Amino acid sequence: MQLTLDEDIAAIEKISAVPTILQAVSELTGLRFVCIARVTADTWHSCAVLDKLNFGLKVGDALDVSSTLCEEVRDNNAAIIIDSVRDSTQYCDHHTPRIYGFQSYFSIPLYRPGGEYFGTLCGLDPDKAELTRSATSNTLTLFAELISRQLAGQEALRDQAETARLREQFIAMLGHDIRTPLSTMTNGVEILRLKAPASLTPLLDLMYRSGQRIAALVDDVTDFTRGRMGGGIALALRREDKLELLLKQAIDELRSVHPGRQIIEEMPDDLELLCDAPRLVQLLSNLLKNAIVHGSASAPVRVRVTQGGGMFELAVSNSGPAIPAEIQSQLFQPFWRSATEQGGQGLGLGLFIASEIAVSHGGTLEVASSDAATTFTYRSRSAGLASCGADALPL
């Protein structure tokens, strides 16, 4: 049965991960226009759009299908990926790039349950981009597979085992195919810093920060996927006898990134705790980033760590408007953002992952908010952590 356009748009809107996928694709590729299109033999309609180019296309808008490359993807049942139109012998004289003014482009087919063609996950940009590298093209293909799988899942929940396999493949591919070349890129930037003239320092700094941002996005999505598969956040527990040094290092790193913001810390020396220290540092960093983004720019962010009575407590506070109770209940949900938050500030996973880290340690993460301050507090037993047990350790 052929579904109507409104039904197909609704099916895409029901996939809660779609906005995050479009944002992740844009971050990964550098393309400033990404969308999901419904493509038939005679029509092309947008079903989800991320538009940083002011292209003007909205959900439900139509294009002449004969003017698009998605028609070719449909006819040949194969993806099209172009790094640079002017360097492509196949597409340098094609009418579609001239009509829409792009240099880099990709279009990957999406399928309905049973294998029927739905449309494409596609993106474009006026600038050249490296899209055909295996790490990038594999990731784009996997995102398209995940969207297709979610479409199928709306009608066939019995396919959960195959979805889990795709998620596992997603984690493995992210861990290798993206992190390895990304590490090569950031190491290369560090080498260039030693040899390049001073005039290039701002550009190299921007490249390095962009690489770090992509790495953080990959880590967040990887942690989220593992959590959704039921494994939680994996821990490597050990006795830390100078935990305050690692926590202060995380604070200093954020001070350097946000030099205009004041961060005041209060913590004892010689903090001893059985924990996964890098994960607790990640929890603190996520809470601090949240406080910096949402707190008053004119007031300091405060970090307070205490230990006593068999309990360890870490609290991060910021000034600003009180958070309504109905919003507090949503803060630890994945992909949640406030209505005023800007799209470039992350995937909306920071507080969710911090909460998962707390739970994996056998602790809690709570929020209290008033007109005076908003405080996120992590609490756990300061010794033993018997509730974590061997299940918290990586296999």
TrEMBL record:
Q: Does the record's keyword annotation contain Zinc?
A: no
InterPro entries xrefs? GAF, GAF-like_dom_sf, HATPase_C_sf, HATPase_dom, His_kinase_dom, HisK_dim/P_dom, HisK_dim/P_sf, Sig_transdc_His_kin-like_C
Which keywords appear in this protein's UniProt record, sorted alphabetically? Kinase, Phosphoprotein, Transferase
Q: Which reaction does it catalyse?
A: ATP + protein L-histidine = ADP + protein N-phospho-L-histidine
Keyword Phosphoprotein part of the UniProt annotation: yes
Q: Which GO terms describe its molecular function?
A: histidine phosphotransfer kinase activity; phosphorelay sensor kinase activity
Give the CC-aspect GO terms.
plasma membrane
Report the protein name in the record.
histidine kinase
